[in-house]
Amino acid sequence: MKNLVHSIKKKPPSNLEYSFMKNINSTYLLILGFLILILLSYRFAVSKTLESRVYLNNIQTQEIQFSNIPSQLKQLRIQNNYYDSILTVKKINRLDGFETNLLNKITTISKRLDLEITKFNEPHTVNIENSEIKTFNLSVIGAYSSVLDLIYQLEQHYKLGKVMSVDFKKKKHRKTYKEYLECTMYLQNTSTSNSYLK
Length: 198
Hints:
alpha+beta, Alpha-Beta Plaits
């Protein structure tokens, strides 16, 4: 039994094996230390340098974009003057263009939806700072769903303004005594002045 215990006991490593193991461990520690050093240098130096480089590139592209603004503004002024001269020659009032367009759209939609336009008054205009607010008062006769579709098309589809108020009234025709639905609405359009282009 004693022989068996002695044979199980390990022999101590020789000096050669010990120095070889010591070299391997120190090599692993050296590699691990080098990797940690690379990670720390990236974290504290290289990443900030890369961020600064990206920031510098963004600033340079913005500088190039902003350097073209004066020439673009001059070109817009020339273009605006050209279009104004065309409107003057053709005797078209710039402000009436929106009203005409609005009336044409309402007429087209009303014909398609079987509505009758009974009133389209001159707009009420208010000037606030650099904005001009026009409020149009119009009335139509027709089915409830058709009137709602007209409101939707004006406000959402064609984006001709914002419907500020809608008033539905059920009325009777004087001669035929038939009932009909009349809708009076106020459509508001806001436009800014182009004084900065002059």
